[in-house]
Amino acid sequence: MATLAVVNRAGQDYTDRAYWAGTIKMSLSKLFILAVLHEGPMHGYEIARAVERTTKGCCSPTEGTIYPSLRDFAEGGYVTVAEAFVSGRRRRVYTLTDKGRLACEVAWEAWMEATRALQDTGKTMPRRGSRDGTEGCCP
Predict the structure, then answer these.
(1) Phi-psi region of 57 (alpha: psi -120 to 50; beta: other; left: phi over 0)
(2) pLDDT tens digits for 76-86?
């Protein structure tokens, strides 16, 4: 059976797994940025590598994800920013504030709640090519 690509007005194909993976990873990147800053102050490149290491490569945030998030976190008082020399280079070093720690805890709880809902729903969701021969909506 041929797969039908469904494209909306903006040109987005919602049948593309990469779309969903990217959407999820972008949102998770914000959570993981806050989470790795629990380890201590870091500059942007360190944060990216720590997120990648922590998630075993599932989330590999780019500069285009990290720096706008860090800017938002700084403007909101979730991190502080200080200039420092690291390995002879001037870097912006980010430190989690108490407000940032609270945001991380709240975000973590929200993600875990969503994860449990996905797992519970996934137990009853029909699968494509399931054993009973019916076709469901999910792979």
Answers:
(1) left
(2) 999 999 998 87
